[in-house]
Amino acid sequence: MQRFIQFNDEKIDSMIVMELADLVTTLTKNLDYEVEFGVHSYLDRMSKKIYVRHFWNHRPKNIMINGLKSDVYLRAIGNYSFTNEEDIYYLLQKLSTTSLKSFAKQLFMITEDLRLEEIIKRKRPGTKSAFKDRIFVYRKYFESQLKVNLVKSIYTDALFNNIFLLLTSDSPNENIPKYNEEINLVMPYIKNTITKFYETKSTKDTVKLCLELTETLEDILDQDMLNEYFHLPDKKYDEIVHDPTFDDLKRKDPLQNNDVIDKKSEGDEEVFEEEFRTWHRETSDLSKSFLQFDLDQGSGTDLLGEGVREGEAGDQALAVVQGSVQKTNKNDYSNLEVQEHKQRSNQGIEKKYGKENLFAYPIFLSPEKPTYEEEKQYREFKSTISNYQKKLKKIIEKTLEHKKISPRTDLHFGRLRKKLLPFFTDEHPRLFYKKQEPSSEIDAVFSLLVDCSASMYDKMEQTKLGITLFHEALKSVNVAHEVIGFWEDTNDATKEKQPNYFKPVIEFSTSLRNLSGPEIMQLQPEEDNRDGYAIRLMTDRLMTRFENQKFLLVFSDGEPAAFGYEQNGIVDTHEAVLQARKKGIDVINIFLSNSEIEESQKKILHDIYGNFSILVSNIEELPNVLFPILKKLLYKSIA
């Protein structure tokens, strides 16, 4: 069994998600776009997301990969660059009164996709195999759907299935089943119209043919489609194409009071034709207008009359204003600067901690004084790992670089210098020196980050045993380190607030004290875990240290799960690991278990940490498993 990200009732291989995310970024050349799994595949420009279908799950792996990639190709290349949203908006407006709206929208999706497919294959021949598998799977699917819909006499859906088969057929003699009499009579026209889709050059051409075919079938088909095989979102295109201008925002609805202005023009009025922008409750976007108005309803009346309300002293600032007014509950422009500052801050947070962690914030807790029971348990742990601690100490000493003592010159003995001039000029010349020598101090620092989520419940005791081993070994070789547990508060987490708790049970300043250690026993399984955010935060802490070699050890089972983090958590954590490594921090995952480790867990940890993941089902194996990876890291740093 393989470990997957769960979306609703579907499972997603985390490595595939990361591959698709990289593919989307490469094809769109836009870092803001991301990939998500959904029921249907489409491009959402407003939220900058490309949806790929769960339809491809539960198929042979090569078919599934090619199917998902074909979705990405169509959206990230096709729709992104070659589909005109204004033409789609025109189509949706025309379909507002038709009885076959779903049929027409789905017909547009398949015909536009086929047009885009040909463009993509010409520009990128390497995509042909993916589209070949895509058509093969869809044809098999619609052949079965056609039979089912005919048996159930769902003729509109059956006709749509048949149209797809006709459009993707390699043979001109594609089988056409028998429908009712009306549909059978119009089939020659349908076949003839379908052939025109091969000649479309633009989205506009596709829209025109879809409307033409829908208009004809509207008098023949009794009902719209029951099934939705492809999805064309309505509101998204409306928002993209129909961005309101100032003229669009002018009030056009009838006045509540249709009073008549009695005063006639005498020709000597002072007229101002200058246009200035205002804000009112129907304006959705902020601007930096100086004037602010609260508009609710108005009357057509004589401005100097007495029919509506008595003028107020404040009206004179902007001439006499008449009508019913009230305070708006919308944006207050006095806070505009604050809002803009907040927006810039959010962008900075997104860049630093990832867009999945935009609303996450840290809460650091202080460790409590160890209880007698905690001290007793820690002594038992120390006794258990004493032999392994000595072995790990030797591994660390042999593997990690020591600090160097600066070279010393002008000595009476040692190695002879090349510059011998002082021999002739000085009465007591100092002509010798000593090279750099290693000190007893190791030039390294460690941060031990401990996942305290609920999923660690059955592994926490073994994990604390491993942390005790590291703490005692690092303390014995005088290497500064910290131990921090982390978790996210499930109950308080909302869409715009995700508190993440960090509990430093061992801090850099106290890590080398003889009595430090029992605080480790205070680590307990809590709630959720936002691994990517925690790794980024620990990266910042390590970057403030002066040591040459920096290590981040993440004790976790590799299953990130937090509010809104289930689907993209593995991808976000993987990105956090890559960012830390780019800054020179060696990130190692350590998964300690008290039982045999499943292949699914190995797979997900490899997806996040690559080859730098240590999986140990028995604490006795840890020193032996750790030595090769520390040695590999040291050679990497020297190279």
Largest sheet: 7 strands, mixed
Shape: elongated
**Radius of gyration, CA atoms, in whole angstroms:** 35 Å
Strands of the largest sheet, in order across it?
A: 6-14-13-12-15-16-17
Helix content: 40-55%
Low-confidence stretches: 1-9, 302-308, 315-325
Count of helix runs: 17
- What fraction of the residues are assigned to beta strands by DSSP? 5-15%
Q: Structural class given helices, strands, pairing?
A: alpha/beta
Kindly state the number of beta strands: 17
| Euclidean distance between termini CA atoms | 39 Å
Mean pLDDT: 80
Features:
639 residues, alpha/beta, seven-stranded mixed beta sheet, three-stranded mixed beta sheet, 17 helices, 42% helix, 14% strand, elongated, disordered N terminus
Overview of the structural elements:
Helix content is 42%, strand content 14%. Mean pLDDT is 80; it is low at 1-9, 302-308 and 315-325. Helix 4 runs antiparallel to helix 8 and helix 11 crosses helix 13. The protein starts with a strand and ends with a helix. The longest helix is centred in the middle third of the chain and has 28 residues, at 372-399. It is built from 17 helices and 17 strands. Strand 4 (42-44) and strand 5 (49-53) form a beta hairpin. By secondary structure, the protein is an alpha/beta fold.
